[in-house]
Write a structure and sequence with these properties.
Keywords: ATP-binding, Nucleotide-binding, Phosphoprotein, Transcription, Transcription regulation. It contains 18 helices and 16 strands. It is an alpha/beta fold and about 450 residues long.
Length: about 450
Amino acid sequence: MVKQGTVLVVDDNKGILKALGLLLDKYFDKVILISSPNRIAGTLWNERVDVVLLDMNFSAGINTGNEGIYWLSQIKKADANIQVVVFTAYADIDLAVRAIKEGAADFVVKPWENDKLIATLLSAYNLGKSKKEVKFLKGMRQELSSAAPMFWGASQSMRQVRLLVDKVAATDANVLITGENGTGKEVLAREIHRLSSRAAELMVTVDMGALTESLFESELFGHVKGAFTDARTDRIGKFEIARGGTLFLDEIGNLSYHLQAKLLSAIQSRSVVRVGSNLSVPTDIRLICATNRNLPEMVTQKQFREDLLYRINTIHIEIPSLRERKEDILPLAEMFLSRYAAKYHKQGLGIDTGAQKKLRDYPWPGNIRELQHTVEKAVIVCETENIAEDNLLMASPQVSAAQPAVSTLEQMERDMIVRAIRINDGNMSAVAAQLGITRQTLYNKIKKYEL
């Protein structure tokens, strides 16, 4: 039998501790024995504990079980994921029920039967393991369920993209998706995942642009308890969460040069090492990356590793901007209109001829994301049967310096960010420097204005 997990036994009878130590060592990776409950907090801080076997009575002559209930609550406060099996010398069903109501997984009565004790502890261990997995799966599946469907449109450029996706999706080839902000790179990644043999598993998304350097390894590779100050429990990283599925690394071009080597190592070795651990954990993921930056140019400027580019760029898919597929603008607008008319209880809304022309003629620097936001605002402000030109609150693409447009401060800030992104060809570090703000602040504003 393969040994796994760590069990902590807390009992003031040293004879019992010795016997349990010999018994449990055959089934668990690590067995920790302490005779005083006062050592529980320190032990949980210094060790990764999966299951606690906790005696219910420590003070001589007092058999109420109140001490055990107290220490059970302290263990759960320290880490709610730890499974606790209570140990009592008295077959007191009321006490056992009370302990279970307070969070215990099960109970064992002294004197114990070895087989029953082992079965109870292993069951508690597997329960805790399952709960952790379910917690991650729920979070990831909630993310998947809220994803927007892929809209292909009728343009020739998108037909070519669709043909390529149909060929690539069935393979496990790494894919690099490029395109301007708002073109739908993440939506396309989800479509590739949906069409793949991994569709039944998760697609896990990581925004590399919003990921701080100090958290990079912990987020992607995971960490073990005690690896750093706030590492109070073990945590698996995105590579492990995505096992069997797809890992989508958005804004890959914003990853700093020295961290690119660590990512490359994980991709090449098909394994990760959690922070604070020496154990290599194998991974099984399909990798999709996306960026709005020119990675080959960044390679020539020594801003992006050439070997990493080769690894992530087995298949390259470029999504055209919305101004390059004008025949798709109105169908997209109609799709968003239907969605938001239902959301805001304004079913039956249409788009009049003037508004249609305005939508077609606008250059859409924010692409599909900007169009979606514009249609939603139009639905909210429209008070007639059809959306008119004046309901479309878009930034003017060409404003004379002598005759500045009247705008709100937020609209001016938004326009300034859009211009800076276009001028700097999507280089977010350069955009942040030009605007005099940090890169994180820039990303916060991009999300705020849905650029």
